[in-house]
Structures are given as structure tokens and as C-alpha cells.
Amino acid sequence: MYCVALGRRPEVLGKLKELGYSTIVIIDKSVAAPDAELCDFIHQVDDISDYESVSSVLQPYFNRFTVHAVIAPGEKSILTAAKIREEFGIPGRGVEISEKLRDKYCMKKSIAAKGIKTSEFTAVTNFNDGIVFLSKMLDQGKKAIVKPRIGAGTIEVKLLSDVEDWIRYFDHYLECRNKPHFREGMIMEEYILGEEYHVDSVIQDNQVIFSHAGKYPHNILGFEQHKFGGSIALSNQSDIFKVLKAFNKNVIESLKVEYGVTHMECFITKEYDIVFGEIAIRVAGSSIPENLLKQTKVDLFDAFVRVECFLPYIAETEYASNLFGFTHIPIYKEGRVKNLIKEEELTMIEGVYKVHYNIQTGDTVGMGKLSHDKLGDVFIYGKDLEAVYQTILQIHSMTLVQIDPAI
Predict the structure, then answer these.
(1) Residue 395: how many CB atoms within 10 A of its CB?
(2) Residue 261 C-beta-side C-alpha neighbours within 13 Å
(3) How far is the C-alpha of 202 from the C-alpha of 193, rounded, in Å?
(4) Burial of 65 (0-12, 13-18, 19+ CB in 10 A)
(5) Which architecture, in CATH terms, is 121-190?
(6) pTM for the whole thing?
């Protein structure tokens, strides 16, 4: 059996090989190639979101092989995969639904039309569009967020506190508007004050067969102030878990998601309103999949491959008695790594069970530009949410890394 994978996520490619698939892998030239044993065929293209270039590369394979599925492990190739399926008659998600799961403006428009609470928002195609909306927010004593309509994660996401912020962002946009993520323009939306949560789900045959909620210790944009990122899984017995699970189900049903793995983000305000942020039809980034595996025994990568390839999937959930979480070791300045705290020092803290570094002493690091840019992760457990959070605070009270400034 052959499967086309438009992306390099090694956990996905590994699961495809485990299930006996031959893989035809397409990746951007800008990213490192995956291990050769994960790919039967591999091609690099200038832009994986460019449907025409990807289609021309795949045409000979569709002529030669029977392709069982076309999957998009990352957001950038979601629409490309949908167009490829429609062109070559491959079963799966088409363009109409995929657009609502990729284009942030279409997504929010669809969600709002179903009566689900979301932030105020508007499409932005020129400077004046942004000025009008931002002025409205500032007049109400609020801030705004601007980002590409077809962005991913925190790519080019900025908080706007005043008109000068928008001027700087728009100047940057004019320099970068030919980049793929700016192809459809921008969306500007109200900045929501509240705690940020995520719900990760598995959908098959129009049913949400698994979902679990987690809380971000700091809102995602906190990384810009070097605040620690990460996630803490919520207790499945808690009231907030049940409310978030129901909200997530409503979102998925409103978007008519028939199958897939989703990562939905939302806010809970001080008035206890749940406000939709966005949803992605992919496995969550960072160490969220690893943390949920520890919390629930559900492997989101295995689930993703099985449901995307229309294979039977049963979520055999086993909830841990403790709550699990992780915290990023943030990058607070650029330079050369002089010293890293030893893993043994961290694992002496009650509740810390593992440390993973992405770098080593002597490496040179640049400032983090995205929420998942980090020096490593510390993995934690505790009896409840507050216990895990207090352990995170204890970790970040320590000097985790020393960096000599760049010369």
C-alpha cells in the first residue's frame, strides 16, 4: 500500500512504516530531510503549499501506483492535500472543509455563524483595514492580534497595543507578503484576556472518539517575554474538563469534521465565558503528544495515521492517577551556551521525572521567534493542577541555563 505524506514529521512517517505502508514523501527544500528508512520515495519542492508544483511531482506516482491515502502531517500542506485528493480521486477531506480548517478567517466566520463565541475579527488586505479595526479595539480599551490567515502556530503572530505596532507590522508584511503564509492576507482579531486551554481530539466516522483538555501555564504569546511555555493535562473528573470537552465537540460538529486528529485552542475569561481561538487538523506540536500519552495512554500519532488512512481505530484510554505536564526551558537571549543545569539537579525536585535538552554546552542559540522555540523540556507530575504548576514555578526559580552574549 502506498501513502503520500506532504510533510516530514518523523513520528507520522514512522507510524506509516509500522503499518506496512510504502511512503511517498514531499517536503519543502527549506527543511531537513527525514531519515531515509522512513521514505520509499522523497522529493523536495520550493513550497509544499503550492498545489501545482506538488501535483506535477506526484503525477508519475499516481500513474504507477495505487495510492491509498494522501495525508498532511502539518498545517502548511492541508489545502494542498485536499486539492490532490480531489484531482486524483483519492478518498478523504476535500477543499471546502479543509479551507475552514486552514484559513483562520474562514474558520472564525464559520464558527461565529454557528453561534459559538469567538473574538471579534476581520479580514485585512490593506493598511486601512487594520487601522479601522485596531482603532475600534483601542477605543474599547482593548488590544488586537494580527496574523496570517493561513499561518501555523505563532508564525508572524503579533500583539498590537497601539497604532505604531500596526505600522511596524504592516511594513514587515509589505517586505514579506510573497511568503506562502501571507498568500491570503491577514486576519486581525480582538485580544482575549483570559486563561488559555487546548483540547486534543480523535474523530472517526463523524464521532469524537477521544478528547482530552490541557492548560497552558502561560498564554502562547508569553514566549515573547521569555515566559515558560508548556502544558498541563487536566483531570478528566474536573468540571472544567467536562465543559471544555463539550465546547470542543460543538466546534468539531459545527465545522463538519468527519475524521482526523484536531488541536483546538480557546480561552476562559474572568466572566467564565469560553471563547474560541482556533483549531488545527493535525497532531499538536511541542511535547503535548508525549504528555497526553503519559496521561491517557493514547498515542495521537498512531491515531492520526490510522484515521487519516481509514483504518479502524479504538482509543483505549487509561487515565493516570496523577496529572502530567511539561514546561519549556525558554531562550532568554542569543549567544553561546555556557552552562546547563544538570538533569540530576532537576530530577531531585519532587514531581520532576525527565529532562530533555535540544542543545548542549557550547552551542550557539538565537532568540526564539515561535512559541515552540526552546532549549528543552522538563517533564513533571503532581497530584493536581496546582501541584504541577507549583513545581513549574520552582523549576523556573532556578538558573537553568547560562548564555554568554553574542559578540
Answers:
(1) 21
(2) 28
(3) 29
(4) middle
(5) 2-Layer Sandwich (3.30)
(6) 0.94
CATH code assigned to 2-96: 3.40.50.20
Residue extents of the structural domains in the chain? 2-96, 121-190, 195-405
Q: What is 195-405's CATH number?
A: 3.30.470.20
- Supply 331's cell numbers: 531562550
Render each residue's pLDDT in the chain as its tens digit; 407 residues: 999 999 999 999 999 999 999 999 999 999 999 999 999 999 999 999 999 999 999 999 999 999 999 999 999 999 999 999 999 999 999 999 999 999 999 999 999 999 999 999 999 999 999 999 999 999 999 999 999 999 887 789 999 999 999 999 999 999 999 998 899 999 999 999 999 999 999 999 999 999 999 999 987 664 455 456 899 999 999 999 999 999 999 999 999 999 999 999 999 999 999 999 999 999 999 999 999 999 999 999 999 999 999 999 999 999 999 999 999 988 777 888 888 889 999 999 999 999 999 888 888 887 666 556 788 999 999 999 999 999 999 999 988 888 888 66
Helix (H, G, I), strand (E, B) or coil at 329: strand
Residue 34 and residue 10 in contact, taking contact as beta carbons nearer than 8 Å: yes
Measured at the alpha carbon of residue 376, what is the angle toward residues 373 and 377, in degrees to the nearest 5? Answer: 110
| Residues contacting 252, CB < 8 A, separation 6+ | 201, 203, 208, 262, 264, 279
Helical spans, DSSP H, in 260-398 = 288-296, 300-308, 343-347, 385-396
